[in-house]
Structures are given as structure tokens and as C-alpha cells.
Amino acid sequence: MPLIQMTDVKKGMNIILDGKLFTIIDFARRKMGRGGGMVSIKVKDIETGSVLEYNFNSDYRLEEAILEQRKAEFLYKEGKFYVFMDLETYEQYELGEDFIGEASYFLKENMEVSILMHEGRAINVQLPNVVILEVVDTPPSYKGNTVSGGKKPAVLDTGLKINVPMFVENGEKIKVDTRTKEYIERA
Of 86, 106, 126, which closes a domain? Predict the structure, then answer.
């Protein structure tokens, strides 16, 4: 594994500390009056999501984690597992419900995603920024509801509950932002 100087750390960099995988979410450099400086980093544990802070001397070296991004296709859900197929090697990955988390609200069969791998192990599923989902349950629209009107609750075909404009009806396909879980437009 490559070692990086504390003066070269950047936001978004993936590192290994105490045998765990972290992403740097913030850092600050402090110059001491005499001698070397200090670097404070705020990191997020990729597996648990917990955020920690560490302080290091500026001459300390960190172990950089090499992550591989694999294109994969979501095939189906079987019990508590989601099955993905690597689009290059055709290898299949079974990832548990706990691992997938809220991404399950956006997964549709045959959807292409990216799986972040570290040393042959899946550590994260990256969804496209926008997905097309179908509205399966929302109150009816009434005459006079316009684009600039209010919002109403809707349940989508994956079970996701969001607010949609008043003019959206059951059976319509809509675009949803996977990062904010918000309605974008009709599809």
C-alpha cells in the first residue's frame, strides 16, 4: 500500500487507520511556533458511518487505500440478499439488506450501478444520481392543480415515500434524485 505524507492529504481520499477503511471528510493544518506543524483530519468509517477526528505531526505518513470501482447490474432480490453481476467478469455478488440500506428504495432489476471494492470485498454501492420510478399510490389530482401548486405524498413502486406535485397521478413515471430523495420531473 502506498504511504502519503500528511501534507498531501485531501478531502475524499481513502485511507487505512488501525486496520479500518476511512474517507477523509475534512482536514486542517496548523503551524507550530517552533518545529513541525500538526494536521487534524476528520474521517468517516466506510463500514459503520461513524465520524472520528485524529491529530498527527506533519511528518507522519498515512496508508492510502486503493479502491476499485466495478460496473455491475442489479439482477434480483432473493430473501435478505441483493444479487449483482459484474459487467466485465460476470461474477455475482450477494449483498445483504444491511449493506444496501436505503439504496434499496432505488434499485430496479437490470439497473446499472457501481460497486466500490477494496481488496476484493464490496464496501459501497453507488447509484446513478437520477432514477425513474412509478407512482403506485397518491391521492387523486383535482382540476386547477398546477405546476406551481403544493405537494402531496406518494408511494413509489420500490416502496419509497416522497412528496410530489399535485398534478402527478397513479401510474405515472417520475424522475427521483437518489441523493436527496426528491421529485425532479415527469419521465
Answer: 126
